[in-house]
Design a protein that fits this description.
Blueprint: H1 2-16, E1 19-29, E2 34-43, H2 52-55, E3 59-62, E4 68-71, E5 76-83, E6 86-94, E7 108-115, E8 119-129, E9 133-135, E10 140-142, E11 146-156, E12 161-162, H3 169-176, H4 181-188, H5 197-207
Antiparallel strand pairs: 1-2, 1-5, 2-3, 3-4, 5-6, 6-7, 7-8, 8-11, 9-10, 11-12
Helix pairs in contact: 3-4
């Protein structure tokens, strides 16, 4: 079973690298030096958006001699570029949710930043696999499928990366925003629901964040 999952993961990584585009971007290193570079941004097969699941583990860029250099989340604070008229920022954070590749030994990942502030809202990406099924007609086992998942994750200042649980969303968010009574009251009164996470973060950053 593990062998099938590993093979599926390899096939996904290979498909992601089918297409890549050269895009002008910026890298902020751990010592705060900034580099304007030409990034080699991966795209999924026939996909219109960058393969963020691949970028979470690092990005390649071209140096002065046109040599490809890989920047990992342990090496930089941030990578950024513009795509379809929008600024894309991916910040290096501790991999508290274990989002890193099966083949990565790094403790950090780049995550796509959606909202900046005292509370940061990220989109995180990972793969899930469904098990194979026994076929009574042939007596064999059909292969399972592997698919990409994306969900929001939150980070309060220097706290750990947190992903709210579906069935415990209200409880998790009440605890996460505990220092903002106004927001907690609106969450408990169901004024804010699961689909309002972006709005919750904006309300906290505007009304309850303390410098």
């Amino acid at each position: 079973m593990m062998r099938n999952l590993s093979l599926a993961a390899i096939l996904i990584l290979l498909s992601i690298q089918v297409n890549a585009k050269k895009i002008q971007g910026k890298i902020i290193l751990n010592d705060d030096r900034e580099m304007n570079v030409t990034m080699i941004v991966p795209f999924g097969f026939l996909a219109s958006d960058p393969a963020y699941i691949k970028l979470q583990n690092g990005v390649k860029y071209l140096d002065a001699s046109n040599k490809k250099i890989t920047i990992r989340p342990d090496d930089a604070k941030e990578i950024s570029f513009k795509w379809n008229g929008r600024d894309v920022r991916m910040l290096s954070v501790n991999d508290d949710l274990e989002l890193g590749s099966l083949f990565s030994s790094h403790d950090r990942v780049f995550l796509k930043l959606e909202i900046d502030g005292a509370v940061k809202l990220f989109t995180c990406f990972w793969t899930q696999s469904s098990p194979g099924m026994y076929n009574a007609t042939t007596g064999g086992v059909t292969g399972g499928t592997t698919y990409s998942v994306e969900k929001y994750a939150l980070k309060m200042r220097n706290g750990p990366l947190t992903r709210p649980r579906g069935l415990a969303f209200r409880k998790d968010m009440t605890e996460f925003f505990a220092d903002c009574p106004e927001l907690v009251e609106r969450i408990q009164s169901r004024d804010f629901k699961k689909g309002d996470l972006e709005l919750m973060v904006r309300v906290y950053n505007e009304k309850c964040a303390i410098d």
